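Database export, one record per block. Field names are fixed; values are copied verbatim from the stored entry.
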Amino acid sequence: MKRSQEMKKQNLFAILTISLFLSSSLVIALPMPARAASDPVIAFDYYHVQVGNQTIYRAYGLPGPSYEVVDRNRLLGNLTKAGYSLDYLNQTTPITSSQLSGVSVFFLGKADDPPINYSASEIQAITSWFQTGGKLLMMSGNSGYTSNDTENVSFMSSIPNHVLAAIGSSLRLETGGEVTDQPGVGASGAGFRVYASSANNGVNTAAWASTITANTQKVRFHGPTNVIGYQSGAYVPFSSLTATTVTWLYRTSAQGTMQAYGSEKPYITPVGTAGQWVLAAAEKIPEGSTYSKVIVAGAGFYGNYVINGDTEFSYNISFQGLQFVLNAVAWGIASETVPSSTNWTLIIAAVVVAIIVIAAVAIYIMRRKPMPKAAPAPAA
């Protein structure tokens, strides 16, 4: 009898040991959340400029209009004040993977000249950087404001669209037109001086978009194009994108209109039709266990007539575009883990419950006193 009790104890101990081992193995196998960059670096590609037969890269240092210099310095100064390190890359060479090493946020400037395009090697460098996960790409386009009065303005959207396609984004910029709005409603002074306004339901404060649009009531998009989508091999209206990893941020009033501009026709936005056209959008793209992120806007983050401008010339309107950009950068560097397809919460809960039950039964059995032997019947 004593030998049998010892064997029971040994078996119960073995069961407990195996249960604890299995549960600890499951916990160790859980994906750990990625850490945010401790010293975020923001890199800039102002724009490529063609001078004769020579391409000047990262042309942020070229003289520009006074308003451009003021807006640029406001942006750079506030990013520095927020604790970010700024990197202007190398002005004399194309974008390379080594230049982007250690960069957390990359601003791509809008294209201002049709001969300028990102080369295949530059797009590959940007894509490789983005696919390491935990990155933010700030991408902007424009409509019809060019530096050489060309009639074909489609390059201002098609160039950034090449990059968006390479990184696997479902966002695109419309081409061949210019979004306008009603002055006094969604534009200041003239229809092309568009701004998104919370008064017109033009600022998205729902779900995770609210993190990016916080404390912004009006944001300027001077001479913009609009953000559309791309899925199943075709351009689609932004409203056709239903994934929870995509959201609009700013849009026109209901009186926004796509105007024809240049020799190209818009992909899918009807010319002359009123509607609330998306001016800026965001997307989270899974890259391994973490998301990389992209924000796409129909006007420039960097350059001339930029989003971060706080006023519109002599019109008495204040904008919070700079706050939008600061919010966007903070959102972009905040690490987000891609949800696992396995429901680990339920699995862990089941394992814990099983361990508790097994332990309780084991303790009960070990503490249970053996039944006394029945006394032998008296002899007749």
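Remark 1: Residues 31 and 340 are 8 Å apart (CA to CA).
Remark 2: The two ends are 29 Å apart (CA to CA).
End of record.
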